[in-house]
């Protein structure tokens, strides 16, 4: 590994681009290899056995590029299969979005009532509550699964009436529980952030795990002496397992820039 080695990032679809965007903003010189498993999205409703297999597959694809770090930009994998990724990577550091988001939420909350929204698998695993309570056992965690947010984000329904209707359905109860902090426990959800913020109401801090991951990435790279000090901004290398044309449209919609080359890979 050298300072010029890439950072590998993977997610079940294009939601992990929220992490790519955050890292580009914080560390523009870093080379990024991003794999979106668009052929098998969403991971949230699938069994733990299947999710763990997918995690191994996704890691193996990124390891071909000899990365200096792997970032699991999928909360479902972070909750249920982070150990699979760590074993596959050997001595390469691994960052999961779940722990980074939980840590930031604990720092931000004032009244010790934190809401978490995520996929069925992430919420069902109780991993966020465990991670938060490991840092502060006095915090109450109120969780809500929002399974249809992922397909809405994947379709680019950023400000669609259907998105607003479902946001009201999912968030009404959690809003009434007196939380002061809400964790977006899926990397697709920041794409719908405007609707989520408007629905949950004023005065509630929104925790985007992507921003927390970018901060942790900088810390680890500096500690290991692998921070890329180049003054030249790097263009991410994108990999998908299906529908590169659709990925192209969504990339431009969300990232606000022209799409670099996208390679189709088999899983």
How would you explain this protein's 3D organization?
This protein is of the alpha/beta class and 267 residues long. It is 46% helix and 17% strand. It is built from 12 helices and 10 strands. It has helices at 17-26, 48-63, 75-80, 82-89, 97-108, 120-125, 127-135, 149-154, 161-175, 193-200, 209-224, 244-255; strands at 7-11, 32-36, 69-72, 94-96, 113-118, 140-145, 181-185, 205-208, 237-240, 262-264. The strands form 2 sheets. A 6-stranded parallel β-sheet has the order 4-3-1-2-9-10, with helices on both faces. The mean pLDDT is 92.
Poorly predicted runs are none
Round the Cα radius of gyration to an integer and report it: 17 Å
Strand content: 15-25%
Termini separation (Å)?
25 Å
Question: How would you describe this structure in keywords?
Answer:
267 residues; six-stranded parallel sheet; 12 helices; 46% helix
Summarize this entry quickly:
It contains 12 helices and 10 strands. By secondary structure, the chain is α/β, with parallel strands linked by helices.
Layout of helices and strands:
Layout: E1 7-11, H1 17-26, E2 32-36, H2 48-63, E3 69-72, H3 75-80, H4 82-89, E4 94-96, H5 97-108, E5 113-118, H6 120-125, H7 127-135, E6 140-145, H8 149-154, H9 161-175, E7 181-185, H10 193-200, E8 205-208, H11 209-224, E9 237-240, H12 244-255, E10 262-264
Parallel strand pairs: 1-2, 1-3, 2-9, 3-4, 5-6, 5-7, 7-8, 9-10
């Amino acid at each position: 590994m050298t300072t010029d080695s890439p950072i590998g990032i993977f997610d079940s679809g294009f939601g992990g681009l929220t992490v790519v965007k955050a890292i580009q903003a914080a560390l523009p010189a870093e080379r990024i290899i991003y794999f979106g498993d668009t052929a098998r999205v969403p991971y949230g409703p699938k069994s733990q056995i299947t999710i763990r297999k997918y995690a191994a597959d996704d890691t193996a694809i990124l390891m071909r590029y000899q990365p200096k770090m792997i970032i699991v930009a999928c909360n479902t994998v972070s909750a249920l299969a982070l150990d699979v990724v760590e074993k596959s990577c050997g001595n390469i550091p691994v960052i999961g979005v779940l722990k980074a988001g939980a840590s930031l939420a604990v720092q931000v909350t004032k009244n010790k009532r934190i809401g978490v929204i995520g996929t069925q698998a992430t919420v069902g695993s109780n991993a966020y509550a465990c991670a938060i309570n490991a840092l502060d056992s006095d915090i109450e965690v109120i969780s809500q699964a929002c399974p249809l947010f992922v397909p809405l984000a994947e379709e680019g329904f950023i400000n669609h009436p259907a998105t607003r209707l479902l946001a009201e359905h999912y968030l009404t109860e959690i809003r009434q529980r007196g939380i002061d902090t809400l964790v977006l426990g899926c990397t697709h959800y920041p794409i719908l952030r405007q609707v989520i913020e408007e629905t949950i109401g004023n005065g509630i801090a929104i925790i985007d795990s992507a921003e927390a991951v970018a901060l942790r990435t900088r810390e680890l790279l500096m500690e290991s002496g692998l921070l890329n000090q180049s003054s030249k901004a790097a263009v991410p290398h994108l990999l998908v397992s299906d529908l590169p044309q659709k990925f192209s449209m969504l990339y431009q919609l969300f990232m606000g820039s022209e799409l670099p080359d996208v390679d189709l890979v088999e899983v």
